[in-house]
Amino acid sequence: MESLLIVILALGLFHGEALGYPTKDESDVMIIALENEDMKPTILDCEYEIEDDPMFLTLKWFRDDKTIYQWIRGQQPAPIPEYKNEIDSSYESSTDPNKQYSSLALINPTISATGDYKCVVQTNANTFINHQRVQVIDTRNYTLQLNQVKIHNETQLECVVTNIYPRPILTIMSNDEDVIMKDIPRVQEDEDGYFNATTVVAVYDTDEDPDAYQCTVSFEGYAKNLTTFTISGSAGISHVDFNLWLFCFLYYLLSKLKVLI
User: Quick one: signal sequence residues (predicted)?
Assistant: First the structure.
């Protein structure tokens, strides 16, 4: 019965009290989640309509107001040398000669690809400007731990995440409402631009029932979170996919109860 209670507590975490900050939805931001070296290019389109055949057409892409790519109709496009390894200049976005090389194909992204992008198209008659925000997410080499220390009727929870980008939002959740203290999250940026963050909360519990605690790391505009959890009186489990762990735990529990054949 105690094991079953732990499972119920874990399932109920999402309905408990949030001890941190919510994630915002930024639908106008293009997310690049770094995975491996074989990622497909990220394409940024430049929207414009040319009614008449212009005498000339030039297009430039900027990142944070710095020129990174330019194209003159009738010629081959040219990324700025500093960015030649970040842009596929051979990518053709259209068979229309006025739009043939108008898109920006980002390859080999790193966290430095994060920024405000702008394309500027100029003809003898018109100027078109488009904006796009790009946010890189890098969680390939992170660590995540949720530690607890029991002192009398008070439990102190410390959530620590390291080597992550961008600046994370840490949220500790409890299956009850025995919160007596919240610490301001401490976030530090290292020399490579990655972040390490820690947040601490304290809970006050007067009963002997096990309680479940969960720490979630989230980012503005990104739907996927990183999660770890712990049960009061147990050691923290780090770098764990919560759904996978819960599935395995339920399978083990039901097999012990002889529900599964």
Answer: 1-20
Nearest to 5 by CA among 154, 211, 179: 211
More confident residue, 245 or 31: 31
End-to-end CA separation in angstroms for the chain:
20
- pTM (2 d.p.): 0.75
Q: Which of 235, 210, 220 has its CA nearest to residue 31?
A: 220
Cα–Cα distance measured from residue 232 to residue 117, given in angstroms and rounded to the nearest whole number: 47
β partners of residue 133: 29, 116
Give me the domains of the chain, ranges plus CATH numbers.
2-27+139-256 (2.60.40.10), 35-137 (2.60.40.10)
Interacting residues of 69 by C-beta distance below 8 A, sequence separation 6+: 60, 61, 77, 78, 79, 80, 83, 87, 89, 104
Neighbours of 88 (CB within 10 A): 16
